Structures are given as C-alpha cells and as structure tokens.
Amino acid sequence: MLDLGGGQAVAFKVESHNHPSAVEPFQGAATGVGGILRDVIAMGARPIALLDGLRFGEPGLAFERAVSGIGQYGNSVGVPTVGGEAVFDEAYRHNCLVNAMCVGLLPKGRLTRARATLTGGLLVLYGATTGRDGIGGASVLASQELGEEDADRRPTVQIGDPFTGKKLIEASLELVVRGLVESLQDCGAAGLASSLAEMARDGAGVDVDLDRVLLREEDMEAWEIMISESQERMVAVVRPDRLEDVLATARRWELTHAVIGEVTDTGELRAFHEGELVGEIPAVLLTDECPRYLVETRAKETRSAPVADSNLTSRRWIYERYDQLVGSRTVRRPGLDAAVLRIDGHRGLAVSLDGPPVGERDPFRAGALAVLDAARNVACAAGEPIGLTDCLNFGNPEKPEIAWELEQAIEGIAQAAEALGIPVVSGNVSLYNDTDGGSIPPTPLVGCVGLVEDVRRVPAGWRPGDTVSVVRGPSNSLLLAHDWLGQEAEVIGLVWRAAAGLSLVHDVSDGGLDLALREMAEWSGVEADIDVPDPDTVRFILAGDHVPDFAESVGRV
What we know:
This protein is α+β, with helices and mostly antiparallel strands. It has a domain at about 110-285: Alpha-Beta Complex (Phosphoribosyl-aminoimidazole Synthetase, Chain A, domain 2), CATH 3.90.650. It is about 30% helix and about 25% strand. A seven-stranded mixed β-sheet has the order 7-9-6-10-8-11-12. A six-stranded mixed β-sheet has the order 13-14-15-20-16-17. The protein is globular, with a radius of gyration of 24 Å.
C-alpha cells in the first residue's frame, strides 16, 4: 500500500496463473483475474482497475480463449481492464504466461490485515461453497513442469463465477467499512491450508472444524477440503459480539457462509474432521520458518531472439473486448503507454504493466528494462512513478542456469527501482514454467503506478502543426557504464514533469521509432509528415559525458 496524500492510499499487486492457463486457457485466465481481485479486496481496498500480461506462442485459439476468460470475468464483475501487454514468441508456445494485476483505492486509515491477532476470534468462511475443483492447483500445476499429460490435469483448474465474485467484493467492503472484521484473507493457492496458515503467523493459532465447511460435493476427505482452491471464498476473523452482523451481511448478499473455527494462542494450525484431530503443525513452519534452499547457480551465455511480426501489429482488437470505462474513473483508455484513472478531484493514477523487450534473453537486462519500460509508460501519461509490483516468471530453479536467471533478474529490478527511487511493494513468483524439459526465457513482468497531479492535462494526441522530437538515453550496451540506470531515471523524471505541457508523449519500444510514430498517429487520428533521420544519431543525454552510439538503444520517447 502507498500513501497518495489527501487521506487516500493505493493497493496493487500482480500475480500469475500460468500453468492453469496452459491447461485450460479460458478458466485459467478468468480465475487469475478473480484471484488478484480478492487479494486487493483483502486489504480493504475497492478494485478500480485490472491489467493483464499475456505471452503466448502465437495469436491462436489458446490466446483467444485466455482473452475471452479475462474479458468475461472482468466485464462481469464490473472492474475495468485498462492495460497490459500481449507478446508472441515461440519460447512460450507450450508454456504460456498469464499475469493479472489489480489496483485498488482505500482510505489510508482503513488498511485491513490478514494476520489473526484476536484470540477467541471466530473464523467465518463466506462466498462460494467448497468443491474438488482446484485441488492440486498449487502443488500439481504451479510447482511442477508440464508435459504431454497436461490434458489429464484439467480437473485441477479452478472454475470461476464472476457474479459471485462481484457480490464478494461488495460484501467484503461493507464488512470492512462497518468495522465488522478484525482480519480478512483470500482463499487462493492451497485453499484453507494456505490462508489459515498465513493468518496464524506471529504466534497466533487456528483451530478449524472441517465438518462446518459447506461443500458442493459429497464425500470430500479432510485433505481435499483443506487444499481445495474453489474460487470466490474469503475468510474473516470476527469478534463474537459482531458475529450476527457479519452473518446478516453475508445473507443479504446471498453468499454461503459458516463459522468454521476460532483463533487460539497455541501457535498451531489444527484441523478437525468428524470429531477427530486430523492435522496439526506449528503455523510458523508453513510461513516464516518454512524450509529454505540454497540453490546452485551457473551463469550462461545469452543471445537475443528475433521479434515476430505479430508483435508489431495493433493490439486494439484485444483491448476493445474489455470494458474500459465501467466505474466511471477511466480518464485515459488503453492503447498507448499507461492508462489513467481519476482518484479524487483532479488527481489521478497512471498504471502500466510491462515485461522485458520481446526477444530479450539477458536476465539482468530483462529485470531492469521491465521496470524502466513500465515507469516510462507511466511518465508518458504525466504520472510520477511512485511504486512497483513484480511477477517473476521463470523455469525450474533446480536447474543452476535458471536459478542464475532468477537471481540476475531480481538484481536488475532492484537496481532499476533504486535508480528511480521508488519501492517494490508487492509481487509474486511463478517457477517451474517448463514443458518437457524446456524452460521459458527469463520473464519478469513489472507493474508501475504513478501519481497524476491533474488529469485534465494528460497528453491527449498530437495536432496539425506540432513538432515531433526524440529524447533518448544511452545505449543498453552500456548497461553498467556511465551510470546507465541513473541516466535512464533522469530521462523518466524529465518526461513525467514535461508531459502535462505536451500534446503527446510515447515511448519507443518493440518495433522502433517507425512503429512508435504509427501508433501515435493511430491514437491521435491525425497522420504526420515526418522526415526521420537515423534514429540512433538523435539523442538527448542528460549526463554530460560522451556516450558512443549503438544500433540498439532504450530510453527513447
């Protein structure tokens, strides 16, 4: 969560749903949206925007199904999908990436925490009933490589219900606003086992009676109830004297609900079934003191891959399938750099979700460039970058080369964030993105949120008679030289400060200057007559040192 001033705060996070989407693209993508919505709701924030990061082998049936799943859930639940990216690369043919980001607003003093601190507090599970769908989603799909038997894993993919999800949003926010809950937690990966363990950290304990969990399937065993990842469920800690108000709220929103246990002072997560203790473990062993592994790392040579032509075409056909305006906050729609949403008065938020450049295989550069690209997009929309979230998509970390990629990408993100002077406030790790032994490239996706002082001055489009100029930083070939990241940060700072006084600003990324100009013309509805010199001789470097030119450059707007 970040303080926006004026009593407002923003909560935001990005998560992956890669393996479920590889097995069943529609439901995998849809429930990825549902899950990230609940993460933001659990903080007491109202979701105001969704973004998605998609990487597939080609724009074929699987991609179409994922887009449909995102649209079906987001459109139905009433949260606008305003940005993201869609990348096509052979490296993702058998292991697609579906990352979902959510941004929410809340009063600064209303932050709701997930940890259970009230001994004697009652655990209320509300939302949908619990079934066998999603069993093994975290342990089977997310933590193992995929192979030829993928189709047999379809039962482990969760089934989403966005209309129950909408009721869950409204009921949860009502509980928070009225002060009826002490803690709130989403039931996500590993279901009750994970959510209750996270609530029980810091010395608290939790006793859960699985007989009280309302089921939609018969004869479910205790372990199935504990790890089911059935969607649209939340767990709240409630004071006994507020219980009836909580249950009345759930009834009014027509949500299934039950008191399933209580908070103790034992520090143990204990599960009971049919009157017997069937599971018991110190909760800390599943959270802060869970096993840690020092994995072997081994550097490897990297080489950039070619960019497919499908990455150089308009993405309008994708984002027009999403509701961009529901909620009445959208000031700038998707289609060029960051979207902008109104906060209060004339203030707004610029939001962007980006990965490394197409074909980038160097993990350090992948991490750093994902941060810079997301921040540049926000700056181009007149937003001052204030915070980051990341989703680290990598292969099997038990392979030394993959462990090295993960380590290097994290370092790249860290150095870029430090150069920008902004925090990474949340994130997610998606590992074991391998199919039949082959790993995806290092693919950290980074979300950035920026504060827009006046949404009336967001660059809208170029006009006849405007002059077009190029501002650029040094070449990415000088990654560690001449304070490369510091100069990139200076360019971004220059852009967000100047953007409000310009007709249009756009970053140059995949496809180079020619594609950037075509995108600006499409966005503006006005063609331009431009004599473009060699773009790599056009540069404006804030630092005074001489930097030689290279064919490949970043940081151009």
